[in-house]
């Protein structure tokens, strides 16, 4: 994983697989506070304490196609390496919150990457879900709610390529990338 | 500055196209592997290129995502299903190869043999 956008995509895919109907993504990118923070909260099936422990172990995965699960362990290690913190909170039927923060100026802090492209990819995978995205840096705040987008679309699918491409430029502009 | 209002124009255009396409058969269904292995290998730009090209070439194809297909070392993997359900598997994809698959396979119905899994195994 080269950048934060790729972690975002990977972690959000877990939320979609956990049958969440709402996925809330927060990205804070503040030079002033020397902070980079990414959190993904879902209302999916959640995990018990034992499972929360297990998913942080690279040799645990729920999939059957291969034996190593790397998404969460990599995310955690990356944050801790960059003088940041990592939080994973979950309870059965209550959903999951996963949050990683980084010291923004730290050498090991990953670059942001193409956040807009990751978000559009998540929106595409989570067509049935409500996805809310909140972004803030020292100069701007940007919010996107797919329910609002779907309402404007009046039944036209959010998967329509033209809609996805428009959303990508809209997000790019909104977060100043 | 773009606003959500701009979406209304896109919506109307999409509705117009939908009416034009009524009765037209969907040619292919394209599936891209998007688990950790796929993402790390560069599946995201492949997926997005496919979405862009399908829109640009105006072909009746849906592009969707799936998890780990089970051949992590050959990611990014793209599977193309035709109307009969026959599958073509493309491996070690990138944006450039995705453009060619969109044009040759999805638009002109010619399998791009050199990128298929069969070719790789030889």
From TrEMBL, chain A:
Family matches, as InterPro entries? HATPase_C_sf, HATPase_dom, His_kinase_dom
UniProt domain Histidine kinase: residue ranges: 1-106
Sorted alphabetically, the Gene Ontology BP terms of this entry are: phosphorelay signal transduction system
Q: Which domain of life is it from?
A: Bacteria
Q: SUPFAM superfamilies in the record, alphabetically? A: ATPase domain of HSP90 chaperone/DNA topoisomerase II/histidine kinase (SSF55874)
Task: Write out the entry's keywords from A to Z.
Answer: ATP-binding, Kinase, Nucleotide-binding, Transferase, Two-component regulatory system
Q: Name one Pfam family in it.
A: HATPase_c
What's one GO MF term for it?
A: kinase activity
Protein name per its UniProtKB record: ATP-binding protein
Species of provenance: Candidatus Fimiplasma intestinipullorum
Automatic annotation (TrEMBL), chain B:
Q: What protein does this entry describe?
A: (2Fe-2S) ferredoxin domain-containing protein
Superkingdom of the organism of origin: Bacteria
Record's InterPro entries? Thioredoxin-like_sf (IPR036249)
Classification from the root reads:
Bacteria, Bacillati, Bacillota, Clostridia, Eubacteriales
Name its species: Candidatus Fimiplasma intestinipullorum
Q: Which Gene3D superfamilies match?
A: Glutaredoxin
């Amino acid at each position: 994983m080269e950048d934060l956008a790729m972690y975002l995509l990977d972690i959000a895919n877990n939320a979609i697989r956990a049958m969440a109907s709402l996925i809330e993504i927060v990205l804070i990118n503040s030079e002033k506070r020397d902070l980079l923070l990414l959190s993904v909260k879902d209302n999916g099936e959640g995990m018990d304490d034992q499972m929360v422990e297990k998913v942080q172990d690279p040799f645990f995965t729920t999939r059957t196609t291969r034996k190593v699960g790397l998404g969460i362990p990599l995310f955690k290690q990356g944050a801790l390496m960059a003088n940041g913190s990592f939080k994973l909170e979950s309870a059965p039927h209550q959903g999951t919150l996963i949050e990683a923060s980084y010291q923004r100026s730290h050498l090991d802090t990953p670059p942001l990457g193409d956040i807009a492209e990751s978000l559009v990819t998540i929106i595409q995978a989570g067509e049935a879900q409500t996805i809310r995205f909140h972004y803030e840096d020292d100069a701007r705040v940007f919010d996107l709610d797919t329910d609002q987008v779907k309402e404007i679309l009046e039944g036209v699918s959010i998967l329509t390529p033209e809609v996805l491409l428009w959303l990508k430029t809209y997000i790019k502009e909104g977060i100043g990338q | 500055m773009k606003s959500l209002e701009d979406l209304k124009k896109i919506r109307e255009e999409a509705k117009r196209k939908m009416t034009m396409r009524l009765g037209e058969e969907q040619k292919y269904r394209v599936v891209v592997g998007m688990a950790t292995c796929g993402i790390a290998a560069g599946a995201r730009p492949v997926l997005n290129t496919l979405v862009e090209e399908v829109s640009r070439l105006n072909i009746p194809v849906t592009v969707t995502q799936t998890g780990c297909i089970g051949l992590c070392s050959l990611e990014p993997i793209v599977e193309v299903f035709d109307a009969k359900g026959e599958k073509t598997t493309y491996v070690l994809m990138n944006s450039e190869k995705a453009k060619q698959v969109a044009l040759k396979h999805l638009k002109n119905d010619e399998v791009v043999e050199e990128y298929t899994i069969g070719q790789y195994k030889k």
